[in-house]
Amino acid sequence: PEKLEGANAYWCESCKALCDAQRSSFVKHLPPVVVFSISRTRWTMRSGKCKDERWVEFPHTWIPSQLLADLMPSSTQDQQDQRDPAQDTYHLRAVVSHSGCFTDVGHYFTYVLAPPGASKGEEWHMLNDSRVTRVSQSHVTDCQAYMLFYER
């Protein structure tokens, strides 16, 4: 929830005054594809803008209802309990990564999971300009992710 306080407080029509409050938003229906963008830029007093090279853990399977259950209103939670969990399961399909030490210089490339039925089991590929290379799942997990693409 977002805290509304101070200069950003909520204007109450009944009280005719600014009041501290919390605001929440809920997504009723998630789309078939969800994209997460990870900010890799940070600012320092010494050097200004620089690349944040910290490793970020991300799941290969994402089930939003498990992560958000505590945040949902009870009526929404009751509806979620009646749904088939398989309908809410997202699978990682692609990861955009970056090589280079700076935010303004370097090279972007993408890891892509072969479509279901295209190979035996899960097969990841690195797309780097005109080169396509098969890589392990752990190679994908260990990369510096910039964007994550999940598909239901």
Automatic annotation (TrEMBL):
A Pfam family the protein falls into: UCH
Identification of the protein by name: USP domain-containing protein
Molecular functions per Gene Ontology: cysteine-type deubiquitinase activity
Domain USP: 1-152
InterPro entries for this protein: Papain-like_cys_pep_sf, Peptidase_C19_UCH, Ub_carboxyl-term_hydrolase, USP, USP_CS
GO biological process, alphabetically ordered: protein deubiquitination
